Amino acid sequence: MKLSSIFKSAIISTLMISSALQAKPAYVATTAIVEHPALDAVRDGIKQTLNDNGYTGDNLKFTYESAQGKPEIAAQIARKMVGDNPDIIVAIATPSAQATVSTSNSIPVVFSAVTDPIAAKLVPTLENPGGNVTGLSDMANVKEHLELIKEFVPNLKALGIPYNPGETNSVSMLAAIKVEAEKMGIKIVESAAPKSSDVMIAAKQLIGKVDAIYCPIDNTIISAVESVVKVGIDAQIPVFAGDTDTVARGAVAAVGYDYFDLGRQTGDIVVRILKGEKPGSIDVKMAKGTNLFVNPKMAKKMGIKIPEAVITRATKIIE
């Protein structure tokens, strides 16, 4: 064989390999601790951003698995995903993020809907975190939340908070609420619900002790929030929430993030990594943009009226 023929064969082989590599779809493996509207919206927002950036059809493999609210399943999913060796693992909510980060040492991990990534030990710092992990935090402005509740309940003295003490994000949020509540002269009454099946009991334990109930961004509570709403109706205690998606499920009102948009913001980080950036060089982002949702029907059922000033500035009124 002539030398020129050998070179031609080599070039053709190289082009074929290059073409095959280019044809390989981007593989984004996604997991969440549980399925509920807010976390589902994050997942959908991530996928939408990928699609908008040209990752569609044959050039995107997008998988999703729910841990069904169980940390042990989250750990199993993390191990399986690491074994599948995707380009990126996206972990939605703190328990799934913790399971994934503790399992993956080299595969890029992008977390989302995590309240306090430092307390959760996902990253050592929000700026230039290093390693293979970055993501987006949904730490809420709890002062704004408390101020909204006081608009509905001007004489608010005691606020009940059902929460899962096993969720780092919920513990961090509760601590932040206590700081602001003390400044405002509001007593915080905690009620623990380690599992979704405990949520009804936790809510009932607040009857007669509080003027209102606030459901924080806690995946255990939100997954069973209808139980809290029922208690609110039966005991005539208004129920508020830390995320706007819960208003359609029965909370009177909430000021919070649009979780689909939060997913899109997370998707921007995923795209940057797919295009070659190192996750450790990307600062952890703080979620942007808040909305105010109100539910007049549920307010009436719980024995209160929505102030006109709140109605006027509401982003969405649930009919």
Largest sheet: 7 strands, mixed
| CA(first)-CA(last) distance | 79 Å
Q: Return the string of H and E elements.
A: HEHEHEHEEHEHEHEHHEEHEEHHE
- Sheet-strand content, in percent, reads 15-25%
Give start-end ranges of low-pLDDT stretches: 12-21
Helix proportion range: 40-55%
What's the number of extended β-strand segments? 13
**Cα radius of gyration in angstroms:** 23 Å
| Main sheet: strand order | 7-6-8-9-10-12-13
Category from helices, strands and their pairing: alpha/beta
Spatial shape:
elongated
Count the DSSP helices.
12
Mind sketching the topology for me?
Layout: H1 3-23, E1 26-32, H2 37-52, E2 60-66, H3 71-84, E3 88-92, H4 94-103, E4 109-114, E5 133-137, H5 142-152, E6 158-163, H6 168-183, E7 187-192, H7 199-204, E8 212-215, H8 219-223, H9 225-235, E9 239-241, E10 253-256, H10 259-274, E11 285-286, E12 291-294, H11 296-301, H12 308-313, E13 316-317
Parallel strand pairs: 1-2, 1-3, 3-4, 4-5, 5-11, 6-7, 6-8, 8-9, 9-10, 12-13
Antiparallel strand pairs: 10-12
Structure write-up:
The protein has 319 residues and is α/β, with parallel strands linked by helices. Helix content is 43%, strand content 19%. The chain has 12 helices and 13 strands. It has helices at residues 3-23, 37-52, 71-84, 94-103, 142-152, 168-183, 199-204, 219-223, 225-235, 259-274, 296-301, 308-313, and strands at 26-32, 60-66, 88-92, 109-114, 133-137, 158-163, 187-192, 212-215, 239-241, 253-256, 285-286, 291-294, 316-317. The strands form 2 sheets. Strands 7-6-8-9-10-12-13 form a 7-stranded mixed β-sheet, sandwiched between helices. It has a 6-stranded parallel β-sheet with strand order 2-1-3-4-5-11, sandwiched between helices. Helix 2 links the parallel strand 1 and strand 2 (60-66). The model is unreliable at 12-21 (pLDDT under 50).
